[in-house]
Write a structure and sequence with these properties.
The chain has helices spanning 2-22, 25-28, 36-46, 113-124, 141-144, 158-166, 168-171, 177-186, 222-225, 234-240, 287-301, 314-326, 337-342; strands at 244-247, 250-255, 258-261, 278-279. The protein is mainly alpha-helical and 346 residues long. Strands 1-2-3-4 form a four-stranded antiparallel sheet, with no helix packed on it. Strand 2 (250-255) and strand 3 form a beta hairpin. Helix 8 packs across helix 11 (287-301). The radius of gyration is 57 Å and the shape is rod-shaped.
Amino acid sequence: MKKLTSLLISCSLALAGAALAQQPVEQQSPSKGKRAPEKARATQAQQPKPNAAKPETPPAKQHGAIKDREPTNQPGAMKERGATHERGTTNEPGARKGGRTDVSGQPAGAPSPGAKQQAQERRKGMKTPPANAKASPHATPATAGAKPTAAPPSPASPAGQQNAQANAGAKAKKPDPQKVQQIKSQHANFRAQPKPQQVPAVTYNQNYRIQGSDRWQGPQYEVFRSYHPEWHDQGWYRSHYNRVELIGGGYYYWNNGYWYPAWGYSPSAQYYAYDGPIYVGHHAEPPDKVIADVQGVLQEMGYYKGEVDGLLGPLTREALTAYQNDNGLTTTAAIDQPTLDSLGMG
């Protein structure tokens, strides 16, 4: 019995020693028992877990830290050092995500609308005009407002004469030389008669000046610029001019290619349809015949609608004005040297 008891005690001691031998060393040492959980967690952390999320790359440092970043080929990263001295000047996708937010509510790296526009203008080499810059006097209506339209120049002004000459090429009409000679031959013995009912007479006015003549340029218009009516008796006219004739109800004197009204020569014969010089050339043809020739040619060309009466009345002067405008001549509404030459009668 004692032997059996001793055997059981030996087996129990052997089993206890074997169990004690199988325990980890850490459990046997009380001073190292606290490190066991940390090693276990480290071992578990080293083992890869399925579907574990990869750690995110920490965001780039702000402000000055960005200057020290090395070049990278990652999308949205800065291409070189020092390129971010001015914040918000890039619109590259993904640039500086996750940065801090400034007081305006925009991310620190997000370009503001004004900064974005300035960056685009700098890339294009453009300059933004100052806000208070004055509009150029030559600015278009879209930028400086529509320019006021100037009033058209008067036909008698120099600008009006230039406009008439510029448009003369499209409207110029020249008479047929053969037709001119035919009309002149028909009026070889023409004599005008006074017609105060159809063509009212003008009255004497010593202060009268031909309207607009001060703007007619050239020596061929000097007689019109300097003309003013004078009242003299027969003796005075005879002593100053060698030719004075009664033509169409009034007396005229001839001087250097022009016929002029001889006011005062005969108070009973002072019917004048026009008060001013009438150019007839150096052949000294009677003024009524030359007027009739001009009327006939202008009538043939469609300018004159009245009767060929040899009187320089309103209808004849209107026809002269139209012809002069179409041919780039000074609009004198009179028979002058340039007009007579243009009609082939000089």
